[in-house]
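U., I forgot to send this yesterday:
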Amino acid sequence: MSIEIEKRRFDITRDARQHLSFAAGPHFCLGAGLARLEATVALSAFVDRVVDPLLDNDSLRYRPHVNLRGPERMAVGFSRLG
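Result:
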């Protein structure tokens, strides 16, 4: 499978195991810091607007990877955006 297939189209159902992420070493993405900052700003703005957030504990799944431990799936509901 090629990673290049429909690279300009966002597909939330794609196989995320084939991503390149920010890479490492000489191939490390120069925009990684900016991308992380943009994600932080966007998520902070969203969280500031969410009213009555509620974590769906049944949906919480963790990644099995030892080095990159974190949620693989985490559904959060809310009553409205303020």
